[in-house]
Amino acid sequence: MDSLFIKGGVPLHGDVTVSGAKNAVLPIMAATLLTPELCIIRRVPQLSDVEFMGEILRSLGAEVRSEGDTLFIQAKAIRGIGDYELIRKMRGSICILGPLLARLKKAKVSLPGGCVIGSRPIDLHLKGLRELGAKIKIVNGYVSASTPRLLGADLFLGGRSGPTVLGTANIMMAATLAEGITTIESAACEPEVVDLANFLIAMGAGIVGAGSPTITVTGVKTLHGVDHEVIPDRIEAATFAIAAAATNGEITIHGARPDHMHAVLDKLREAGVKIERRGATLTVRRGRGLKPVDITTLPYSGFPTDVQAQMMVLMALSPGISIITERVFESRFMHVSEISRLGADIAIEGPSAIVKGGKPMSGAPVMASDLRASAALVIAGLVARGGTLVKRIYHLDRGYENLDVKLRNLGARIERVEE
Ligand code: EPZ
Question: CATH number of the domain at 36-224, please?
Answer without folding.
Answer: 3.65.10.10
